[in-house]
Design a protein that fits this description.
This protein is of the alpha/beta class. The protein is globular and about 80 Å long.
Length: 590
Amino acid sequence: MEKWFIKNKKADFSMIGKQFGISEVLARLIVNRGVKTKEELESYLNPEDSKMHNPLSLKDVDSATDILIQKIKGKSKIRIVGDYDVDGVISTYILQKALTRCGANVDYEIPDRIKDGYGINISIIEEAYKDQVDTIITCDNGIAAIEQIEYAKSLGMTVIITDHHDIPYSMKEEEKVYHVPAADAVVNPKQIDCNYPFKEICGATVAYKLIEVLYDKMNIPSGEAKKLLEFVAIATVCDVMDLIDENRIIVKIGLEMIKNTNNLGLKALIQENQLEENKINTYHLGFVIGPCINASGRLESAKIGLKMLLSSSYDEAISYAHQLKKLNDERKEMTNQGVKDAIDIIECTNMKEDKVLVVYLEDCHESIAGIIAGRIKDKYNKPTIILTKGETGAKGSARSIEEYNMFEELNLCKEYLTKFGGHPMAAGLSLEEENIDSFREKLNRNTKLTKDDLARKVTFDMVLPFQQVNVRLIDEFTKLEPFGKGNGKPLFALKNIRIIKGMKLGQNKNVLKLSVCEDGNNRRRYFAMLFSDIPSFEDDIIKLYGEKQLEKLYEGLDNDIIMDMVYYPDINEYNGYKNIQFIIQNYRFS
């Protein structure tokens, strides 16, 4: 059952509108996104790189860059150790390009998802030692590698960690004791004694901040560092960072740069997916470009994505891009089958009653466990862990809901886990197969989740009648972009909408176009579009009103169906004509 909530933040919207030359509706939408002060409003409406935070406020960034300069001057061999997801690949790319620009003797290593697992490990360190690597710099990993870093140090290696993941801790009585690896420098804003003002940045942003300081110290123009922001934007969106504060500035600037990118690999991937460069937005980053880069790390090697970005010829770049597109298509098919299998297990067992879902898909490719976990979490609105059969036991990925801190809950069950790490909303884990049932039982026994917590929550900005929406207002909404987690599209609600007629569109009849009117005004008709589950929409009508009323809806005859809906307005352009349509996000029948 859904619960609908209106954002009810208070402010003088009329005054804000006049002060900034915007409508009262837009003023309300901006305040609803947590923007409070005049300075914050000005920054939100004009996101510029000058408003980004000082990288020197990151703990250890000063000493890390001093070490790198010393190693560069001494021609010491430096190895970057990244990660196999988009953030890890982009972080590795940023460090490889920038350190090469600084004249470093540098190469990279990215762990194999299946063979190595997440993050730096002993075999990677041993290989580096054998290759006479003097300095290891991690990116998007390393903060949990206590023993691994200790081993590298015992071999006489210099180690710099750049990461953004939560700091591992243990409980001493009722206090958290945090554990940070004994590296030569640890650059991670999540450290308790780090004064960086915005903690929720991705691994690529941490790497970028380090490069900003390094370039400054080496007298390389700051404009050269800023060219890397298009890649940081991709990582920020794909690592599902909140698009607030500095992240929003990065993505806003990065999207504009991507539209005119000079990177041959990125150009090739855009072409391979038949995207228009000048229309790239956060959707394309998160659901087209990102998944292609991710697919290489899931099904083969993440180095394919990295090599594509490092390509020096377009023929080479297009070859890698073609590989990535093919791998991503394969990944989609495997994911759909995995989701179906997981639903079958949940629906055919008593697991459906669990508040935390733990599903073991023995034959599923472990690389897509996280995607499947996300899909199952969305379907049931419950924290979900998908486990698969690994080489040395069960491995899996977890996706959570806002009310459940996955990282902390896993920490409470760590006696069953051989390895784990991550965020409140997502995590990775390993355990012995024989412990799966006990682990699942303890997670559910521990949880304080209530029925209310598990109810799907729909939040909208305000009630807005259709008749108050016009093209000028919709155009004004572009000031809110880029949209994404933490800065969603504006959503409005309206009650008592009458449906005059319905028509299914598309080759697969999977789009529903409704002619609707506001209650009491049959003369003014509008178009509302439903792109989600049409069979469920029809089932709901039949349950409440009967099959005859559904038939009348499709025939355009008078019917009794009344609907409430949450929507966002859009402009549909066809053959040079513009018309407003209302995209249905959520609905319920009166």
